[in-house]
Amino acid sequence: MPDLNVHLGDRGYDIRLAWRALDEEFARFASVRLPAGKTALLSDANVSPLYGDAAQAALEASGREVHRVTVPAGEGSKSFERLEGVLGELLHGRLDRSASLVALGGGVVGDLGGFAAAVFMRGIPFLMAPTSLLAQVDSSVGGKVAVNHPRAKNLVGLFRQPVGVLVDPATLVTLPGEEFTSGLAEAVKTAVILDGALFSWIEDHAGGIRSKTPDDLVHLIRRCLEIKAAVVAEDERERTGRRSLLNLGHTLGHALETAGGPSRFRHGEAVAVGMVFASRLAVETAGFPPAEAARVEALLDAFGLPVRIPEGFEPGTLLEIMRADKKNLGETIRFVLPRSIGEAELRGDVPESAILPGIEKMMA
Ligand code: NAD
Ligand code: GLY
Asked: 1 pLDDT exceeds 50?
């Protein structure tokens, strides 16, 4: 039985979450959700050697012909060039409109693979098998698929929902420590915007989470996915402002990623700095209690996430990049600001006079 469902009518889908689900349940999960044609198994150079053979065997168990496509690991693969390369490989493997794609990996493989599937032959079904914490708590659900433009992150993309998501937290055992930590930022984000009880639970279980205790990981991921699925069902295309809340910390975060390039910040790390910035702005302009802002910063810091902008960034440049953020309306920079832990809102009324000095105060 699937654990969760993203309720989107005929675009709705199940999320299966279980320890060792990749080994024990993937064959059945995929066989009833993917068409019988060829299947591209997209992964990256780190994940493919670890989990690619098991995933391929599961797909082949239902008689499918599997075409493996492996991209270099890292954010650099969310590029036009890599997209073209993946599409070229699908053509080379003679995949046609009856084909499907499985994205096995972190958020990069999910975003790139979903985008490739959405545009190949005007769209083939795809299934997400996320293997990083970030992808398991956030990016694999919701259908935002994209590649980066050199001038801004995720600027070229689509909303295209997968046909299913299979989450196996046991894969996190091999996830490098910094990548695991980066994913924790998105989990903390989910709690700050929509679930104060989850935030307290994370504070109380920080040790078990850090040591990757199965029960704690499953609980954390399940609650984040429940929240994400509900938000996506309410506002699939980010029209009402509800889904925009998931962008807490992303306004400055994306600017840091764009200005610094992938080598300076992992996505979750940049979001962590952005959350501290948003919390401080919220204290100044949205009545967020200072003690709650301090809790947010303390939790991120306790997980080893960055909470300041390091040397080498220019506040004016970051502000300019923030002006191109997708949440903005015209010239107004819009921020997601917490009102309390567990409640946030999208605000377009942050005075310009608070933004630049706010960035300057975040410099290490
Ligand atoms: P990633 O995909 O680059 O994965 C991080 C690293 O971990 C990579 O080196 C990868 O090879 C490795 N890895 C993944 N799983 C592994 C495993 N089980 N064992 C060993 N190594 C493993 O990065 P990410 O942090 O997963 O995702 C970041 C991306 O997600 C960014 O591009 C961001 O913009 C995007 N994102 C998208 C959404 C969305 O809604 N679509 C939401 C949040 C973030
Ligand atoms: N991660 C933001 C969203 O899915 O909307």
From this structure: no
Q: Check: CB of residue 326 under 8 Å from CB of residue 254.
A: no
CA of 357 to the centre of ligand 1 (A): 32
Q: What is the pLDDT of residues 19-74, one digit of tens each?
A: 999 999 999 999 999 999 999 999 999 999 999 999 999 999 988 999 999 999 99
Integer Cα distance of 110 and 102 in angstroms: 9
Ligand 1 centroid vs 290 CA: distance in angstroms? 32
Atom 44 (ligand 1): residue with closest C-alpha? Answer: 139
Interacting residues of 278 by C-beta distance below 8 A, sequence separation 6+ = 248, 249, 251, 252, 335, 336, 337, 338
**H helix runs in 120-168, sequence order:** 133-134
* 132 CA to centre of ligand 1 in angstroms: 6
Catalytic residues, by residue number, are 122, 144, 186, 228, 238, 243, 247, 250, 254, 267
